[in-house]
Amino acid sequence: MADYLAHVDLALLSADFAAPDGSDALAWALSHGASAAARSSGREPITLRHSDSRTESIPVPAPTAIVDTNGAGDVLHGAALVGMAREGAACEEILRLAARVASLSVAYPGVLGWVGQASVPQWPQ
């Protein structure tokens, strides 16, 4: 992973990720070249750290219901990837929308139970 972080705009790490050298995971990702690093932790706020050491807390909206959390992290990462494809989207904006989509997904059974069932938040025009 360290070999490709210099090519990463946003390293989105799970709470379970541990830096190989035992250091702070966000600091480790940034020290290996990521432009920004974030860490998700379920319903807790996402911690976002920029290369200039600014740290932000991105709130995770409370879900309307919790039926199945299986796959919520994958939904978060997938929604963040969609956001990364938007030219000019800021990391904060990307993570806010990704957190909304992931929170929405847990109200439905199964990993893809929410697809076609829920009104997925859209990017501002």
Automatic annotation (TrEMBL):
Carbohydrate kinase PfkB domain boundaries: 22-111
GO molecular function, one term: kinase activity
Superkingdom field: Bacteria
Alphabetical UniProt keywords: Kinase, Transferase
PROSITE patterns from the UniProt entry: PFKB_KINASES_2
InterPro entries in UniProt: Carboh/pur_kinase_PfkB_CS, PfkB_dom, Ribokinase-like
UniProt cross-references to Pfam families, sorted A to Z: PfkB (PF00294)
Protein name (Swiss-Prot/TrEMBL): Carbohydrate kinase PfkB domain-containing protein
Organism: Nostocoides jenkinsii Ben 74
